């Protein structure tokens, strides 16, 4: 009988479940994809049910069940924080305590009852779960481990060392001093939603100047040589208030936060750039400390701040590590995966045979790009998949006209549509685990098109964005197109577009403001080039995702360009699609031109599929 471990994260942000069977990830998924509630924080019943079904197990056949953090310790932190600032924290205390007393504190009982089992629930530690998610599925036999996020129980950042199946925590930084909360404070102050808008701050930074760096260092955060930080708490509100920042921030930065509906000004751009620069400095210093403490040449990272791909790109270029691997589900969803791995190796005492030890991984070497590469994440493609039979049956049932294309012809067919300027919903293979779509639930387009950025934003995503889209590029061609020759399978590294692909921008471009600047092509792949010539890169290997690779390869054969646009298959404020039905609904709601559902292609034509379906979907939209 195989040995299985179920990991769960829930009740804070982005709930998820992960099932390991004999030490291999059988399934992992976020609850939001099933419930269609973005970043759903409720108990992940659907995700658990999916994981069990995928492995053909019942809950009582699972050998160990783990939850990714310790609710009692978190409760203690909340209580102590409130007491420390009483009575200033009273409002915030009254707001959050009933939830804790009524529900979160008794979590073992609640989890067991949600699962319908009397089995014991084991509790991991929040940052140890992050650390385990960073090290155990990485390719490395030995590595330094760095976790950085807002806060878990008390810890906000940790340094550890992984060796084989052992993972030792060496240092930690504790609440309220937190890099994640620092970034979130600026997310709030620049008028974006905390826990969601951090990406927008990072995307806004290239438009700004680092004019507030001194003010931040003087009044907001002290950065020590070892990368640990001390927040000037008198200027923050998150311990005792209901917001991140208060009058302290307003005094330092000369005015109130941007209202969510107010236009973004140069001030927000400069604030974004300044905090991004400061956070990069902290990340670099923390990495140097991790290097010094462990003596390792490799680094594994997780925690929400590890999704700062601009910072990650700098770490790779400037940091002391030769190799970096980042858990794709770096946020709290990945805690489900981390606690499952921690139970497998540490509670059940199972050995670990890393990809490096198996000979399935070889370090990057300058001038070579055919390294063997393998981690344990299976390309992060760990969610549901739907067969041609299921999809064909569903299409027929709905009376939707679709052409089934032989697998050998499919990549060229899709590449022709791309080269024709069409926007395509690509739904194939297993759904991605983590925040990024990686070619299985993606919208793809031609990266060479100067119109693609606006087109995708306005007609497909229904938003105006100052961020360019991300490129997906064949792994063996990445160095020809970007200043990078490294694995970035999970779109977690930012690097510049290669000098040879850039084109001179017309004079006067620098005077343009905001999105107008983004509309000026500055490379031969303008849809994916930011205003500072950078790009958030996904490298694609055939072994990870054969059809996706073949499509990009066919596009290259047709156009000489092995780069396409990849953005997540969803519209604003919706989770990424999960089922063919979700995909079709999103396709019909938007002005996408074609939908690929495994081997079926649905084209949008005036009368297609049935006018009745279209009316229903439009009324839903
Ligand atoms: Fe976390």
Count of runs of 4 or more consecutive helical residues:
22
Number of strands: 21
What small-molecule ligands were found?
fe (ii) ion
Beta-strand portion reads 15-25%
Shape: globular
Q: Please summarize the sheet with the most strands.
A: 9 strands, mixed
Low-pLDDT parts are: 607-621
Q: Give the CA-CA distance, first to last residue.
A: 48 Å
Mean pLDDT across all residues, rounded?
90
Overall helicity: 25-40%
Query: What is the radius of gyration?
Result: 24 Å
> Order of strands in the sheet with the most strands?
13-21-20-14-15-19-16-18-17
Task: Briefly note the structural class of the backbone.
Answer: alpha/beta
Q: Determine the oligomeric state from the structure.
A: single chain
Short recap of the structure:
With 621 residues, the protein is of the alpha/beta class.
Characterise this structure.
By secondary structure, the protein is an alpha/beta fold. It is 36% helix and 17% strand. It is built from 22 helices and 21 strands. The protein has a nine-stranded mixed beta sheet with strand order 13-21-20-14-15-19-16-18-17. Helix 3 runs antiparallel to helix 4 (90-102) and helix 8 packs across helix 11. The longest helix has 29 residues, at 266-294. The protein is globular. The N and C termini lie far apart (48 Å). The structure holds fe (ii) ion (FE2). Residues 126, 130, 149, 152, 303-304, 332 line the site of fe (ii) ion.
């Amino acid at each position: 009988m195989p040995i299985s471990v179920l990991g769960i994260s829930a009740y804070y942000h982005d709930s998820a479940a992960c099932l390991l069977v004999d030490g291999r990830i059988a399934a992992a998924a976020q609850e939001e994809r099933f419930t269609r509630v973005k970043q759903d924080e409720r108990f992940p019943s659907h995700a658990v049910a999916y994981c069990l079904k995928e492995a053909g197990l019942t809950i009582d056949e699972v050998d160990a069940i783990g939850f990714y953090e310790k609710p009692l310790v978190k409760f203690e932190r909340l209580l102590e924080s409130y007491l420390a600032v009483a009575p200033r924290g009273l409002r915030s205390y009254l707001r959050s305590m009933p939830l804790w007393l009524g529900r979160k504190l008794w979590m073992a009982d609640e989890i067991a009852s949600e699962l319908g089992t009397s089995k014991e629930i084991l509790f991991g530690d929040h940052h140890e779960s992050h650390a385990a998610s960073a090290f155990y599925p990485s390719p490395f036999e030995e590595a330094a481990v760095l976790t950085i996020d807002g806060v878990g129980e008390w810890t906000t950042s940790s340094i550890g060392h992984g060796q084989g199946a052992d993972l030792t925590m060496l240092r930690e930084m504790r609440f309220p001093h937190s890099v994640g909360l620092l970034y979130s404070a600026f997310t709030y102050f620049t008028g974006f939603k905390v826990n969601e808008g951090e990406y927008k701050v990072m995307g806004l930074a290239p438009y700004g100047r680092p004019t507030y760096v001194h003010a931040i260092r003087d009044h907001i955060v002290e950065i020590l040589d070892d990368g640990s930080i001390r927040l000037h708490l008198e200027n923050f509100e998150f311990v005792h208030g209901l917001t991140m920042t208060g009058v302290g921030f307003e005094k330092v930065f000369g005015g109130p936060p941007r209202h969510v509906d107010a236009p973004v000004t140069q001030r927000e751009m400069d604030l974004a750039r300044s905090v991004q620069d400061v956070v990069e400095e902290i990340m670099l210093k923390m990495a140097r400390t991790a290097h010094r403490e462990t003596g390792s040449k490799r680094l594994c990272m997780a925690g929400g701040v590890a999704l700062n791909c601009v910072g990650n790109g700098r770490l790779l270029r400037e940091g002391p590590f030769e190799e970096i691997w980042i858990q794709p589900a770096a946020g709290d969803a990945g805690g489900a995966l981390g606690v499952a791995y921690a139970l497998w190796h540490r509670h059940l005492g199972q050995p670990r045979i890393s990809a490096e030890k198996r000979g399935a991984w070889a370090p990057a070497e300058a001038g070579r790009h055919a390294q063997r590469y393998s981690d344990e994440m299976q390309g992060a493609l760990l969610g549901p998949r739907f067969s041609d039979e299921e999809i064909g049956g569903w299409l027929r049932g709905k009376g939707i006209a679709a052409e089934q294309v032989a697998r050998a012809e499919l990549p060229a067919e899709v590449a022709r549509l791309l080269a024709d300027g069409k926007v395509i919903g690509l739904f194939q293979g297993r759904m991605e685990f983590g925040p990024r779509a990686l070619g299985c639930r993606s919208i793809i387009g031609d990266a060479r098109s100067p119109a693609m950025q606006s087109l995708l934003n306005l007609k497909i995503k229904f938003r105006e964005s100052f961020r360019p889209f991300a490129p997906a590029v064949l792994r063996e061609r990445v160095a020809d197109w970007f200043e990078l020759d490294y694995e970035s399978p999970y779109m977690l590294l930012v690097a510049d577009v290669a000098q040879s692909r850039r084109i001179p921008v017309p004079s006067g471009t620098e005077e343009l403001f905001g999105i107008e600047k983004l509309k000026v092509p500055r490379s031969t792949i303008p849809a994916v080039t930011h205003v500072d010539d950078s790009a958030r890169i996904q490298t694609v290997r055939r072994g990870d995702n054969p059809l996706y690779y073949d499509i990009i390869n066919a596009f290259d054969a047709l156009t000489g360009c092995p780069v396409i646009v990849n953005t997540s298959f969803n519209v604003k404020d919706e989770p990424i699609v999960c089922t063919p039905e979700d995909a079709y609904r999103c396709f019909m709601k938007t002005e996408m031109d074609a939908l690929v559902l495994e081997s079926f292609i649905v084209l949008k034509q005036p009368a297609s599929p049935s006018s009745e379906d279209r009316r229903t979907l439009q009324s839903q939209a």
